[in-house]
Design brief:
homodimer; alpha+beta; Nucleoside Triphosphate Pyrophosphohydrolase; Arc Repressor Mutant, subunit A; 2 domains; 3-stranded antiparallel beta sheet; DNA-binding; WH-like_DNA-bd_sf (chains A, B); WH_DNA-bd_sf (chains A, B)
DNA sequence: GCAAAAGTGTTAGGTTTACACCCATGC
DNA sequence: GCATGGGTGTAAACCTAACACTTTTGC
């Protein structure tokens, strides 16, 4: 197991057997997307992840990884689960597939991985591969390829957490751009919940709750009728979430 | 840091720097209770916890700890958060307080702790101290003493998770005895949510949902009017939770 | 008999659901 | 002008919240 890593000329001590994995969600073209890494010289994809340094907290480690992959500093991040089966995936199989990138000796011990999910404004992200991958790219949630390790399971659990927290966390604020249309927001809800919502009822409920304000602008340059733009009334949004949530079950 | 532990004549390898802590909830006399340990020769209390062996999963480790502390085998267990600040509590302070029980050298490295909460039927538990404590006892949630380490924060987060999951997990099934009265159940909700509920509205909603059935018995030997007994209609209860939850916000 | 807790119904207000047509725009 | 997506109202059903008195029991 790696217990040190070099950054410039410095050796940095790591917490042994502990890693973290990030599911980075974005929303674009009406669908949820996640950021994946393609391992060097392969067609194999996995979630971005990293190790924990002895002198940083778990959250700090996650922020560091997020910053490295997206270029972004202020990111909405939630720890959602820690994955700790003894044998989280088929070690021999992985060693064979990745032998040219990582020394198989690195797999002599199990690793426990802390799962984080992140929400980012798709438009502001510059995907950036790490030293073991040669591509970092957005994938539509609906056609994510088979993932390496147990990352399929990690993604499942992240989605589940996201669905649950949709009613209690300011998901919209972090996944939508500053100005957005009502259909944008509705489709974000639909994408996360995986079901259709009636647009009249959706609009009524959202406007009633007071969590958004209508701007005196419309979105231009789109085909068909120009939709109005809205932005979040942040204080009110958080109040509503705190006072019991905003449900579209 | 301990990296081995002896069980009988065997040495068991541990995952370094990783521990787990359990918040074990029970419900009795209309209040929520948790199980705490008193450290040998002190008046200091903490949550039950343990280490992770190399050959067991996190869940298995939690089950082992729960079994040791409560004597129970089948326990409702949820992992709710992993605590990983670099300096989770004042190490010097703790070393001084517990020097007579644990060699201060054990604290030379940080530890990351995985938080689990458990729900148990109060009546079925036999509290059992571990080798570092001389008492294992129930405490009313409302008068839990100052806890060692960062266990106060862990308890906070466990409670928060419990509140959130009350609407989606079969909490009642695990916290109440097999047969219970409507006021019992209502007070469980009140204790978890920390607020009063109207008994007429509560009963209406619970009975409408079909998650319990009224038995042809009353609870005898109680002062005042004998209340009817109910039991969960387990299949229906889980269906309702799955289809969007059962809220008393 | 009295104190304490159990049990129970109604009403008003609010929320949710279901449902369909016209409008503005780009091509 | 037509295809596409945006925008909007109403009525019925359902759910929630508010509210107080009678019953049973042990002491």
């Amino acid at each position: 197991m790696i217990e040190k890593v070099s950054v410039g000329s410095e050796d940095i001590e790591l917490v042994p057997q502990l890693t973290l994995d990030c599911v980075i969600f974005g929303f674009h073209d009406n669908v949820l997307k996640i950021l994946l890494l393609k391992w060097k010289g392969t067609d194999l994809w996995s979630l971005p992840g990293g190790v924990i340094r002895q002198n940083e907290s778990l959250d700090e480690a996650a922020i560091r990884v997020l910053k490295e992959r997206t270029g972004m500093d202020k990111i909405f991040l939630r720890q959602f689960y820690t994955f700790g089966k003894v044998q989280r995936y088929d070690t021999n199989d992985i060693q064979k597939q990745l032998a040219h990138v990582i020394d198989p000796k690195l797999w002599y011990q199990r690793a426990i991985s802390i799962g984080y999910y992140a929400l980012v404004d798709y438009e502001e992200v510059f995907p950036n591969p790490d030293h073991l991958s040669d591509e970092c790219a957005w994938w539509d949630l609906s056609d994510v390829p088979q993932l390496l390790f147990d990352h399929g399971e990690i993604l499942e659990k992240a989605l589940h957490a996201l669905r649950l927290e949709l009613s209690f966390q300011p998901i919209g604020l972090n996944l939508l751009p500053e100005k957005f249309t009502m259909p944008d927001m509705m489709r974000m809800y639909e994408a996360i919940l995986g079901k259709k919502i009636d647009p009249r009822n959706f609009q009524k409920k959202i406007l009633n709750s007071g969590i958004v304000v209508k701007l005196k602008e419309v979105k231009k340059g789109v085909a068909h009728k120009s939709p109005f733009l809205y932005k979040f009334e942040e204080k009110r949004y958080k109040e509503v979430l705190k006072e019991g949530g905003l449900f579209f079950i």
